Amino acid sequence: MRLIATTMTALLLAGCGAIPQTQSAPPPPPARPSGQTAPPPSQPAPPPVSGFRAPQIMQGAGLEGVIRQDEASLVRQFGAPRLNVVEGDMKKLQFTAPACVLDIYLYPLAPGGNPVSTWLQSRRSSDGREVDTGACIAAIRAAR
Hints:
There is one protein chain. By secondary structure, this protein is an alpha+beta fold. The chain is built from three helices and four strands. It has a domain at about 70-144: Nuclear Transport Factor 2, Chain: A, CATH 3.10.450. A four-stranded antiparallel beta sheet has the order 1-2-3-4, with helices on one face. Strand 1 and strand 2 form a beta hairpin. The longest helix is centred in the first third of the chain and has 15 residues, at about 1-15. The relative contact order is 0.14.
């Protein structure tokens, strides 16, 4: 019994005497003198992708009358959009009802063409969870 107590005491003391290893952060890079610009990259940036890329068009039940429609047609159906965001040749219109939010993405189908709706996303207004897109379309039409 005494041997066990002595061994346990020795192990406890050995743990207390260990020196913790700390890792130091690498030193910060040297400061540049004021007015000096960053060195040029080792390789030039790749050129931007050019040329037209046709959009993917969403398909499904309940999307008739919305997919492939232009902005004017969508405004006639749903009223004025809550958001109208333009990025390059893409346009996003957002329509809302008390129950849901509908985002409609419009892209041109041909180079220089008029953007039409190609993709939809719908979610509940309360918590952002996904909802049936056809039901959201019907709710926004009914709320109008």
